[in-house]
Structures are given as structure tokens and as C-alpha cells.
Amino acid sequence: MDRIYLENSEKIKFDFYQNEKDFIVDEIPLAEFKGNGNFLILHVKKVELTTWDMIAAFAAHLNIPAEKIGYAGLKDKHATTTQYISVEAKFEKSLWKFKHPQIKILKSVRHTHSIRMGDLSANRFSINLYDIDDMKAGRIEKLARKSEKNGLPNYFGYQRFGRDGDSINQANEMIKGDLYINDSKVKKFLISIYQSVFFNNWLKERVQLSQENNEGKFLLLSGDIYLTSENKLITPKNTPVQDFTEKKLAPTGLLCGRGVFRARDEAREIEKKYDDEFLVEKGLRREAIVYPKDIICKYNKNFGLLNISFTLPKGSYATVFLENIANKNYTAKDVKKD
User: Fold this and answer.
1) Which of 157, 171, 178, 294 counts the highest number of beta carbons within 10 A?
2) Which residues lie across from 100 on neighbouring strands?
């Protein structure tokens, strides 16, 4: 399942690795924490662990079900990541004794409620790129700045679909009724993969259309549904090119399911090819274009290394940002731990 990009420039060859020193992710919370309340917010750093593994370690230490620990999002395993989790404040003293070789509590603060899934505004990435020379460093920064201005197709990255795409096959078999899944979490995960495949294929067609008809800038169609800065979905009567250019609105794509707005007119003609109206899972809409922010490039000529740091909205993939620059699709095998 290829991902193609708006720029469609010449390929740039570089290496990056998902490991603890070359791939750093910092979660940016949705709002400031109150400093008082019945919950304790922990700012934690984990190394080479999944978020689930980290939560399991805290749950075991506190002798509570993992469901009692709040978190905003899942972070990469093969990386050094910081994120926020929440527990009831009554466990504060017990946490003084918490020790784990791959987890460190950086800070704690009281808050009025627990953290819920999605309670983050963005993620900050710092990634080392290797096999870089002067020319590549300049081209990478230029393309990164271009995506900051014109936007980045918001594909689901390769991580979403399993190491060899095996999860896609399982999802399709389950939806067709050829595979029975009893575990509700696994079932929900496979449905999300099924939705994500449709979304990525829809976005690919829209990017192709943009390349052919809009000089590589994302082409808006009549009937598109947009997300406002207040997180409201709207369908304007006229195509809002200026508001899109000024980043006041973002076009969205369908994550098929029940109870979700569908596009209309021209936009629907494409969208309906990537829809399953019989799927009982709740549907959503996802931004088709996102904007990397606060890009910083630091080039070390002696080591052929470029560190690139940038901020992406929640749910967007750093590897997609790098694919956009390299004009190449990566897999888990390409970025395996060094």
C-alpha cells in the first residue's frame, strides 16, 4: 500500500533508526495542569518500551488494574519518549518507591481529573538522519520548510499496519466473517486498521489528483468536509480556498463507520470508493493535511548527520514527514533498531 506525496521530487537517500538515541518523542499536553485535585499527573520518560508495557509496570507496582491509569496517547516502543499519565492522588507516597530500569518519573503535579485518550495537543520529535552531505542537508531543510507552508498528507504510517502488513489481512478476514476475534481490544484494533487502509487509499487518490491538476498543492473539491480551528466539522457552500491557504480550515477524509458525516458532490464521488457504510463501528473524520511546525535542522558535517526536530499534531506520524522529504516509503525493516 504505497503512500505518495504532493511534492513528488527526486528521491533523497538517508538513513534513520528507531532506537533510544536517534528517535526522541515528547508529548505536548492539551492544557496546563491545575496544581490541585484528586489526581496525580506524572510526566514520565520511557526507553525501549511500549506505552502498554509502561502502564503495566505502574499497575503492578500500585497493585491496581491498568484501566485505572490514564494516558493521552500511545508512544513508539523503539525510541526515548516522554508522556503524561494519571493515577489517583492517594498513590503519591507509593510512587516514591517506584523504580524501573527503563522508566523514570520526571515530575508530578496534582490535577482535577484523570487524563483521557486524546488529551494532548501535539508531539515534538527529534530524529537523527545519517548519510547526509552538504547538498542533502540543504535539500532536506528546503523540503521540510515547504511542508511547513503547504502541508503534509496525513497518512497513517507503516507502524499502523503491523510489521509485514499481517494485521491488514487479519482485519479483512475479520470484517468478512472468516476470522473470529473474541478479545474486544484486538477486535477494535483490527477495525481501526481496516478504516485506516481505506483512508490511506483515499488520500493517495486525492494526492494524485492534486499532482495532476493543482501543481502539487492539495486540491479542494466541492462537497469536502472541513475541520475548523475550533474542532468543528463544516461543509461550506463554496470551496474555501483562502481559508485553507490561511490554515483556518483543514479538509478531512473519512474513517468509515456509523454516525459520521459523509462528503458530498465531487468529493463524495471519490470518497464512496473507500467507504463501508455497513461497518457498525463508529466512524470519524481525519485531517487530510497537517502542518509541521517549529522545524529546526542541525547539520554535523564531520559525522554526516542531520538532526531534525519538528512538532506534529496528535495522531500524525513522524515517519510520514520523513517519507515526504525522502519521497520514499519506509517499512519497519528499514528502520529497525541499530
Assistant:
1) 171
2) 103
Taking a C-beta distance cutoff of 8 angstroms, is the pair 281, 237 a contact?
A: no
**C-alpha to C-alpha distance for 114 and 66, rounded to whole angstroms:** 13
- According to DSSP, the β-strands at 249-255 and 233-234 are unpaired
For helices 166-176 and 184-213, give the axis angle rounded to 10 degrees: 110
User: In the chain, what are the domains?
Assistant: 10-22+125-149+293-338 (3.30.1360), 31-118 (3.30.2350.20), 152-290 (3.30.2340.10)
- Spot the catalytic one: 76, 119, 224, 275: 76
Helices assigned H by DSSP within 5-130: 51-62, 92-95
Q: Kindly state the cell numbers that stand for 79.
A: 525510541
pTM: 0.92
- Mark whether 76 is an active-site residue: yes
Q: Which of 243, 235, 323 is nearest to 285 (CA)?
A: 235
Give residue 164's pLDDT.
Answer: 61
Nearest alpha carbon to residue 336 among 85, 18, 58: 18
CB environment 130-159: b (16+ within 10 A), e (fewer): eebeeebbeebbebbebbeeebbbbbbbbb
Nearest CA among 207, 196, 314 for reference residue 254: 196
CA distance 117 to 51: 12
What single DSSP character describes residue 178?
Answer: S
